[in-house]
Amino acid sequence: MTTALEQRTNMVDSQIRPSDVTDSRIIAAMSAVPREQFVPSALRTLAYADQDLQVIARDGKRPARYLLAPRTFAKMLQAAEIDSGDIVLDVGAATGYSTAVMARIAQTVVGLEEDERHVSQATKALNTHSIDNAVVEQGSLTAGVAAEGPFDAILLEGAVDLIPDALLDQLKDGGRLVAILEEGEVGRGVVVKRSGTSFDRRVVFDATGPALPGFQRVAAFEL
Q1: Residue 17 CB contacts under 8 Å (≥ 6 apart), including other chains
Q2: Secondary structure of 153-194 in HEC code, one letter for each residue
Q3: Smallest Cα–Cα separation from 73: which of 13, 19, 118?
Q4: pTM for the full model?
Q5: CB atoms within 10 A of CB 143
Q6: For residue range 119-131, what is the model confidence (pLDDT) as tens digits?
Q7: What DSSP state is assigned to residue 59?
Q8: Average pLDDT along the chain
Q9: Is 56 helix (H, G, I), strand (E, B) or coil?
């Protein structure tokens, strides 16, 4: 039987490296963090599959939550250009996997989730792995965590139709926000960089992903 470590190594060698992810810190972090321990036990055999993985089921009005496919997540990390002294906001931390990976690269990571149960689950996972430079806060995903900012980098862990000004305002000068922006039928990984009061957006790769709750445009009412 293939071990989790072997699956993790295979994920890096077959999904991450061939996707032009060359940052050795990202490769090291994703090689070290046990992704299978951040998913429900029934899904651990799929933890390293090349797909978005639902880790929290829909519950009433609470939407399902996902981990982005490893390739997509790694490419977003590389686009964010996170440095060892950076403070990072992880919007849509879900079970805490993305926060745990970034904690091995950045100085401090603030994860954000709306549901208290998700916050508790992610916090427990981070504590289990003795990650002491990351915390998961509860609050609106679209509002960010202004009290902990400004941030050097912000990652949105899902596909969005729009990027709220509230999040852009929490970037430091020179800070980067990375998201999967869906425009019509097309999804692209984009980086928005702040320069003073201006924001420059560039497309870095084609991408798809599950919708991040709260970031969808409201259809206009027409008579």
Answers
A1: 27
A2: EEEEEEEECCCCHHHHCCEEEEEEEEEEEEECCEEEEEEEEE
A3: 19
A4: 0.94
A5: 15
A6: 999 999 999 999 9
A7: B
A8: 93
A9: strand
